[in-house]
Design goal:
Helices cover about 50% and strands about 10% of the residues. By secondary structure, the chain is α/β, with parallel strands linked by helices. This is Response regulator. One of its GO terms (biological process) is phosphorelay signal transduction system.
């Protein structure tokens, strides 16, 4: 099997991580492209002493950690300079605590593997994760709209959201209901399933909502690969079903981290 074939199954999930890390599909995908270009340019430098997924993320982190975000870290890859508030938040995401949290909670790496990726010992990774969680506790609270047609999952998400200190404005099960609830009580965050009760789409519901006002969105799906191709406008934040509580917590914190209305100064 060629190196390209080994890496292909892991690319959607690297896109998910990169988007969450940068708060942008455009920026995240540009770092992924830069990673692939580096591998193609120097295949002999690819880590072969670990599995392909770990080597892929390791190469990504080598590029991420050395990129000068004030310039163009994806030169030749369609990457445009970040501006204004997005640039400031991209700079603030670089601390290892955020990386450690996303790698463990969202990507499912062990503390040992996470340490390999960011250049830290396992116990240091655990300290960094605890540091990130403490930061989340200080994060400004948001009002959250949940779009989910499965009652058990909706209740689970609602419990997680409330335990984090956020307020749930409502739980919608169809596209029309979601739009109506958003209009009645403007949310500060939307968590949306892809497939809804009446065969309507959570993506279409979100498009309708975003046409009226800006709000950070986290999508929830059992088929993440379909929304992580990098070939069209796709979600920045994505949770895979079945999800862990820690995954939802990390995704919510990261989405709010990049939101201009809720990120603390």
């Amino acid at each position: 099997m060629s190196l390209g074939q080994e890496l292909a199954p892991h690319l959607p999930f690297l896109r998910r991580y990169a988007r969450a890390l940068t708060g942008s599909q455009q920026h995240g995908d540009a770092f992924v492209r830069a990673t692939l270009e580096a591998i193609v340019a120097a295949p002999d430098d690819f880590p072969r002493d670990v599995d392909a997924r770990l080597g892929l993320y390791r190469t990504f982190h080598a590029i991420w950690s050395t990129a000068n975000i004030e310039e163009d870290p994806g030169a030749g890859s369609g990457f445009e300079d970040a501006e204004g508030i997005a640039q400031a938040r991209l700079a603030r995401i670089t601390p290892l605590s955020r990386q450690a949290l996303l790698l463990t909670a969202m990507e499912g790496f062990t503390p040992e593997d996470t340490g390999y990726l960011i250049g830290a010992e396992a116990d240091e990774v655990e300290r960094l994760v605890a540091e990130a969680l403490e930061e989340i506790e200080r994060q400004t609270r948001a009002e959250v709209l949940i779009i989910e047609d499965e009652p058990i999952i909706a209740m689970d998400i609602e419990t997680i959201v409330r335990d984090l200190g956020h307020t749930v404005t409502g739980v919608a099960v169809t596209r029309d209901e979601a739009v109506a609830q958003a209009r009645a009580h403007r949310p500060g965050l939307v968590l949306a399933d892809i497939q809804l009760a009446d065969d309507s789409s959570g993506i279409d519901a979100v498009k309708d909502i975003l046409a009226e006002f800006s709000v950070p969105v986290i999508f929830i799906t059992a088929f993440p690969e379909r929304l992580l191709t990098g070939e069209r406008p796709e979600p920045t934040f994505l949770i895979t079903k079945p999800f862990q509580r820690s995954t939802v917590k990390a995704a919510i914190a990261q989405a709010l981290f990049f939101d201009t209305a809720t990120v603390p100064a």
